[in-house]
Amino acid sequence: MKNVKVILQYVRTYKGYALLNVVNNILSVVFSLFSLAMIKPVLDLLFDKTNTQYQFEPLRISGEVLKNDFYYYINEFIKTNGKINALLMLCVVVAIMAFFKNFFRYLAMYYLAPVRNGVIRDLRKRMYDKILALPLSYFSEERKGDLIARMTSDVQEVEWSIMTTLEVMFREPFTIVLFVGTMIAMSPSLTLFVVILLPLTGLLIGRIGKSLKKNSIKAQAIIGSLLSVIEETLSGLRIIKAFTAERFSTARFQGINDSLTKLMIRMYRKRDLSSPLSEFLGVTVMVIVMYYGGQLVLNDKLDSAVFIAYLAIFSQLLTPIKSFASAYYSIQKGMASSDRINKILHAENTIIEIPNALAVKEFKAKIEYRNVSFSYRTDADSEPVLKNINLTIDKGKTIALVGASGGGKSTLADLLPRFYDVTAGDISIDGISLRDMKLNDLRRLMGVVTQESILFNDSVFNNIAFGMENVKEEAVINASKIANAHDFIMEMENGYQTNIGDRGLKLSGGQRQRLSIARAILKNPPILILDEATSALDTESERLVQDALIKLMENRTSLVIAHRLSTIQHADEIIVLQRGEIVERGTHHELLKLEGVYKKLYDMQSFI
Q1: Same domain assignment for residues 271 and 214
Q2: Is the C-alpha dihedral spanning 524, 528, 532, 535 positive or negative?
Q3: Which of 188, 259, 439, 497 sits in a 20 to 30 Å window from 518, CA-based?
């Protein structure tokens, strides 16, 4: 029951549609029973048992009264129109009942469609919003392929579980109660026999599916790994071919693929066993009922027409019981997927905005790092990436961060837009702690240009205007001109409306970087973070990008991470980081005079 509640919680928003589904399913069951119940009067007519005289009784809620009046009208109809026409009338009534049964069944599915698809839409949106809200640290522990699997195949499993749960928990119990009630009215002793047999078969079927949820969790995890391998293969295809690693990649993929296949075979075999097993057990029960009921008929304890109608109703009772068996498997798989989805939805977001956070619209004076320490892990044994950093960046100044890889430069910059929160100490802008500001306001003050240009499979225009609304083409063109990008854009097939492909792969590295700079220029932020923006470029591209960066940095406060020291010689202050600590600071000339770490780095690059 707990599993069912978890699945049904997704339906709350669509309870109106869900109620219509339930009501129409109930009407479908009622007409199904009526169409089956019509078998007895047809048989009575065929076996010439309609000579019994019935007296009309005033209509009231009573099975006996309804039965009496029904047969009264049939007898009157036979007297007036004859038995052939009465048989035709009964057949037409059965057909009409069957029509309404299927009509209401269609309406039930009609109203279920918005529930199924609406829930899936809402789930995907919640997951997507959560992914956007989670800190970057969360994704360092997760595989992209597994996250994609949770948003696709896991969500699909929840959809099937919702459909199965709504059908089984509301339609089938009503069917069973109504049919069993009718069967009790027809033959209490025979029904008592049936009620004892059916739960035994249900218990046997239920035992088969105990391990299905566990296997389903394993399967979805393997699907996530498979999607991760596919994503990594597509992203790294150039390297795979360059290192002739096709055989290695194939073996890696095949290993995961084979594991998934074996697990899915076991799952399908268990699931597929439920239907034939329940059918065999149902037929076995049917045979036992036929034998027992046949004895009652032969001993004149049960009317033969009643017995045949009873068997017809009982045969339809097996279908909802089989549905319960199948639903058990579907709900277990849906629960496994729901658990995986909830791991994302309930993941802790450590970058939170406090209630009544301050709105900040401009940068006025300075940025301060005060005794800042940071570690990616919170356990006691983890080594801090940054230790006791004290740094002031005045408005309009350019501060450069240099040092060996792994020294903490990018981490120091990532703390400023709160991609991560400090472990100790504090960072403030104009005396206001970052944690006290509205997160969107804080990030609107900043523009970021990274070493790897992050572009999207869209037009040039939309990539430059990314995240901004109602942007005029003139503004995009001006930003592109400042970034030295306008000329190569105009040479493209459709100019600013040209699609640049996945991650901008239709462009060169320098072109991609200049689009990133144009995007930052268009945003016009007062604070810039430049993370090794020219390190991956050739000399010509570096010259064009560096020229664009100089234009971008004019009249702005800049935090620049650089490996090439020649690009930051005119910085107002250079911070040298080593193993997470500031070991030297000063201008280019001051640091050369110290003949310390910076001088060694400079000499190495000069020699190269």
Answers
A1: yes
A2: positive
A3: 439
Which of 368, 320, 319 shows the shortest CA–CA distance to 169? 320
The residue written with tokens 């990616």 in the block is 376
d(CA 512, CA 460): 10
Q: How many helices (H) does the chain have, and how many strands (E)?
A: 23, 10
Q: Say yes or no: 247 and 313 in one domain.
A: yes
Tokens representing residue 236 in the block: 């790294």
Cβ of 23: how many Cβ atoms within 10 Å?
Answer: 15
Cα 492 from Cα 476, distance rounded (Å): 16
Please give the helix or strand (H or E) that residue 389 lies within, else none.
strand 386-394
Give the model confidence (pLDDT) of 565-594 as tens digits. Answer: 777 888 889 999 988 898 989 988 888 888
Q: Return all residues near 411 (Cβ < 8 A) that are at least 6 apart.
A: 374, 385, 386, 420
Shared domain for 61 and 205, answered yes or no, is yes
User: Distance between CA atoms of 350 and 8, rounded to whole angstroms?
Assistant: 29
For residue 486, is it within any domain? no
- On average, the pLDDT of the chain sits at 79
The Cα 284–Cα 318 span in angstroms is: 11
**Same domain for 407 and 270:** no
Please give the Cα distance from 578 to 340 (Å, whole number).
Answer: 41
The CATH number covering residue 608 comes to: 3.40.50.300
Q: Is 112 in the same domain as 42? A: yes
Q: Are residues 66 and 105 in the same domain?
A: yes
Answer whether 98's CB lies under 8 Å from 130's CB.
no
Judgement on whether residues 166 and 239 belong to the same structural domain of the protein: yes
For residue 605, give its domain range.
364-445+527-538+556-608
Q: Of the candidates 297, 316, 345, which is a domain's last residue?
A: 345
CA distance linking residue 109 with residue 115, whole number of Å: 10
Long-range contacts of 486-489, Cβ-Cβ distance < 8 Å, separation of 24 or more? 488/514, 489/460
CA 462, chain centre distance (Å): 26
- The pLDDT confidence band at residue 608, using thresholds 50, 70 and 90, is very low
Nearest to 39 by CA among 186, 144, 225, 208: 186
Q: Which residues contact 461 (CB under 8 A, 6 or more apart)?
A: 473, 476, 496, 497
In a domain, 509, yes or no: no
Picking from 173, 170, 207, the residue whose alpha carbon sits closest to that of residue 281 is: 207
pLDDT given at position 161: 73
- The structural domain count of the chain equals 2
The pLDDT of 18-41, averaged and rounded, is 81
Pair (286, 390) in one structural domain: no
| Digit-coded pLDDT (tens) for 146-205 | 788 888 878 877 777 766 766 677 777 777 788 888 888 778 878 887 777 766 666 665
* Domain of residue 260, CATH code: 1.20.1560.10
pTM beyond 0.90, yes or no: no
Range with lowest mean pLDDT among 47-61, 105-119, 424-438? 47-61
Q: Is 241 within a domain?
A: yes
Q: Is 360 left (phi over 0), alpha (psi -120 to 50) or beta?
A: beta
Query: Is residue 502 in some structural domain?
Result: no
